[in-house]
Amino acid sequence: DGGITQSPKYLFRKEGQNVTLSCEQNLNHDAMYWYRQDPGQGLRLIYYSQIVNDFQKGDIAEGYSVSREKKESFPLTVTSAQKNPTAFYLCASRSKSSSPYGYTFGSGTRLTVV
Amino acid sequence: GENVEQHPSTLSVQEGDSAVIKCTYSDSASNYFPWYKQELGKRPQLIIDIRSNVGEKKDQRIAVTLNKTAKHFSLHITETQPEDSAVYFCAAGRGGAGSYQLTFGKGTKLSVIP
Hints:
With 114 residues, chain A is mainly beta. Chain A has no helices and eleven strands.
């Protein structure tokens, strides 16, 4: 699936529950990113990681957490502190050394609060 | 940080006509400008990109122009076809290979009317 796999495709969260979105890539890419997509808002950066065991907050990190224990994996946890988590979540990866510098996106996870 | 403005938010054209989408960016250090196409329910896919040392780039019916002085860049689609209907995102990126991220515009929904 383009070398970067997100799962699940659809996810339902109850109030007060933490959920984790999976992102796995086999492209040997160094950098990985999480974006949130809302209608009319474009893509907003949640967290990104340039290297294993290191990550930085993006523009809308509150209520989210990540880890980068392996180069291939960058899971995103949506915590109960995120008050409006219903959105489409996209993971992306990029090689730091190759051209073009563009991202490769996963197919996304649609999260809905029930 | 970088701010990317994209216009228009929606665009309808007759099949065979041209479509133009414009973006402006704020950070003069940005040096990479990709365009992504996102069909309904699918992942964004890179369609064309341009580096800051180039003023124009073409790929069949698609072209991108960049004006560094004015800090704006545009996507041009000629001879539009119904399959061009999608949401298009511009982005601006900066940094070297070691630390790099893209800031996206809010998207343009293009509808090509047969």
